[in-house]
Every structure is written in C-alpha cells, then in structure tokens.
# Entry
Amino acid sequence: MSEPIIAQKAPFAVEVEEAKNYFWCACGKSSKQPFCDGSHKGTEFTPVRYTAEKTGRVFFCGCKNTANAPLCDGTHSKL
Ligand code: FES
Ligand code: FES
# Structure
C-alpha cells in the first residue's frame, strides 16, 4: 500500500449538515481538501464516504494517516 500525501498536519474543521453525504479525500491529492475532487484516479486510493449524523462541526483528517477515517484521531501530532 502506497503512502497518502499529507495535505496538512492538522484536521479540517467543516460544518456538515445532518444526513448529507461527504466524500473525504484519502489520497491527499485533492485541491478541494478535505474532500475528493477525483485526483485519486490512477492511484490505489478511493474516497471515503461520510454521512453526517447531525448538523454541526466535524474535524476531517488532513494528514490522511488517521486510523479512524475520515475523522481526525490525533495521529497528525506524531508525524
Ligand atoms: Fe483524493 Fe479522491 S482526490 S481520494
Ligand atoms: Fe490526520 Fe489529525 S489530521 S489524524
């Protein structure tokens, strides 16, 4: 498995809407971070769908090394 690109060593805080689907960029190449823009084509990565349980702020992983994708689990502080 190849390594994802670190988009940033910090989470992206995003206001999400209940029941809406979001597609988190797993490869790190998207220019629309933290979401997929199709740039993963040709890599082994695919986006991860996130369905918001409620409206509010969510911290999406920016370093792409989280063990709890697509959300930040604090791993970025060890990179
Ligand atoms: Fe990164 Fe789609 S652009 S997963
Ligand atoms: Fe990736 Fe926090 S930004 S674990």
About this structure: The CA atoms of residues 12 and 28 lie 13 Å apart. The chain has one domain: 1-79. The two ends are 18 Å apart (CA to CA). The longest strand covers residues 12-16.
